[in-house]
Design goal:
The protein is built from four helices and 16 strands. With 236 residues, the chain is of the alpha/beta class. The strands form two sheets. Strands 8, 9, 10, 11, 12, 13, 14, 15 and 16 form a nine-stranded mixed β-sheet that branches. A seven-stranded mixed β-sheet has the order 1-2-3-4-5-6-7, with no helix packed on it. The longest helix is centred in the first third of the chain and has 16 residues.
Length: 236
């Protein structure tokens, strides 16, 4: 399970990206101050039930509850005008049909009084239409483009998810691996927010071509803190 949701009285980790101010929240969400926009990615709701139904692998059925509770804490904290979920919000296209009514009601309560945008992902290319909110493949806001999967050909101002970034460092003979935000001056990739989601090392070949050499940074999440780390300090 990911880091605790009870993150309140800690210093904000602010960055400037494309002349906009963002807060890197140690829960794994991103808050855009100028737009009062809260961004999350890769919730993977109902991943546990998907594994049980399609693979016969029985996982503890609490992933959706844990993810929604964490999301509710961040919505309460930031009070955003808009919430944007960057794809793979649901683990598969049938996930919403498996959502218990109590979870649907929880989502409905979170949506009250604010705009809610669902971006489609590779796991949920056809998001459910009965949960409310706006659905799109990607969305352009200000000078930024929000999408699920980062694209090497996109040049500036992209914020994406999909890769579940994680960073690893070695200190005093011990290695430490954490979920992270990763980006350079042109692109920012979000960590996975969901409770049962893993991470892919930012030095993996899957990231090739997304950043300008080793000019990128990672912001590693550790408990209730976010630590900036230069690429040259990371290990595979």
């Amino acid at each position: 399970m990911n880091e605790p949701a009870h993150i309140e009285d800690i210093p904000d980790t602010e960055i400037r990206f494309m002349d906009n101010t963002f807060v890197l929240d140690p829960s794994g969400c991103l808050f855009w101050k100028e737009e009062s926009l809260l961004v999350v990615s890769d919730l993977h709701l109902e991943k546990g039930s998907s594994f049980a139904a399609k693979k016969g692998l029985f996982m503890p059925p609490y992933d959706t509850q844990a993810t929604l509770e964490k999301l509710a804490m961040r919505v309460l904290h930031w009070q955003p005008k808009t919430v944007l979920s960057l794809g793979d919000s649901f683990h598969d296209d049938d996930a919403a049909t498996r959502l218990p009514n109590s979870y649907k009601q929880h989502l409905s309560q979170l949506m009250l009084g604010r705009d809610w945008i669902w971006v489609s992902g590779n796991h949920d290319p056809s998001p459910p239409r009965d949960l409310g909110g706006m659905f799109c493949e990607e969305i352009h806001i200000g000078n930024l483009n929000f999408c699920h999967e980062p694209r090497p050909e996109f040049k500036t101002g992209e914020i994406a998810g999909h890769l579940h970034p994680a960073a690893k460092i070695k200190q005093r003979g011990k290695s430490v691996r954490r979920r992270c935000f990763v980006g350079d001056e042109n692109r920012l990739i979000m960590p996975a927010f969901g409770a049962f989601t893993g991470g892919l090392n930012v030095l993996d070949k899957a990231y090739a071509g997304l950043f300008s050499g080793n000019a990128f940074k990672s912001w590693m999440i550790s408990g209730e803190h976010v630590f900036e780390m230069a690429a040259k300090k990371l290990v595979l």
